[in-house]
Write a structure and sequence with these properties.
about 250 residues, alpha/beta, Rossmann fold, 7-stranded mixed sheet, about 35% helix, GlcNAc_PI_deacetylase-related, LmbE-like_dom_sf, PIG-L domain-containing protein
Length: about 250
């Protein structure tokens, strides 16, 4: 188990958090993000698809995308995030292509975060809804971007020559929505749980039964806290923490 409290400090300069769809981050990591921003950490979001295939009302996909952009911007503000990037990929069709990976590399080199967050690239058989194909593609694209492309100046060399975006070594990758056997970090979000819920409620097109959603999320967070060995009545979010460039990392290994 990795002690996550060491990261909830202003020494974590920046965090760049990726999601496949608007609302994914709010389910998986918004409490942790609220804790980070409260500690003075800059957090930026990147939503990879427009969410145009989501929702329960009949409406034009372009209108759905417009509403979901708005919802995510409002939700982000609830947890202290003011910068939201939208990659504009089509909902349901996200793949870890080199075009997508290049976009991810470009953004990571621009932001140069201490922590990159993304959805887990492995399928979760305990709850297959966590493993929407777009979720898996988000995790795979970000993971492939982080190693080796972001830190390799010969990968997408035009990013260096045309935009001055030099190679950068990402210290940490935090994956949410992981299979339980992969989870090795739990963040106590008890003080920030209401902010997380406010962020989730902002996605009004996605929740036909808000009360059921709230009960489900609270139950998941209580279960996470129990598995993480946190005090009774605590609420937590869970992650698979990967040290990409640790103190003992050498070139290529």
């Amino acid at each position: 188990m990795i002690d996550t409290t060491q990261f909830i400090t202003a020494q974590t300069e920046r965090v760049l958090a990726f999601a496949a769809h608007p609302d994914d981050l709010d389910f998986g990591a918004a409490g942790t993000i609220a804790a980070l921003t409260a500690a003075g950490v800059e957090v930026q979001y990147c939503i990879m698809t427009d969410g145009d295939a989501g929702g329960f009302d009949e409406r034009d996909p372009q209108e759905t995308a417009r509403l979901r952009h708005l919802e995510q911007t409002v939700a982000a503000s609830k947890v202290g995030v003011s910068t939201v990037h939208f990659l504009g990929e089509r909902d349901g069709f996200l793949e870890p292509t080199h075009e997508v990976i290049r976009k991810v590399v470009r953004l990571i080199r621009q932001v140069r975060p201490t922590i990159v967050m993304a959805m887990h690239p492995e399928r979760n058989w305990d709850r297959i809804q966590r493993s929407h194909p777009d979720h898996l593609a988000c995790g795979e694209a970000v993971t492939q971007a982080i190693y080796p492309a972001v830190e390799n100046p010969f990968a997408y060399p035009e990013l260096v020559s045309d935009e001055g975006l030099n190679a950068y070594k990402v210290p940490w990758l935090w994956l949410y929505g992981a299979p339980r056997e992969r989870e090795n970090g739990f963040v106590d979000i008890t003080k920030f749980f209401e902010q997380k819920m406010d962020a989730l409620r902002a996605h009004f097109t996605q929740h036909p039964d808000v009360a059921s959603m709230e009960r489900f999320v609270e139950h998941q967070c209580r279960t996470n806290a129990e598995r993480g060995g946190l005090p009774a009545e605590a609420l937590a979010e869970s992650f698979h923490l990967v040290a990409v460039n640790a103190d003992d990392t050498i070139s290529g290994f």
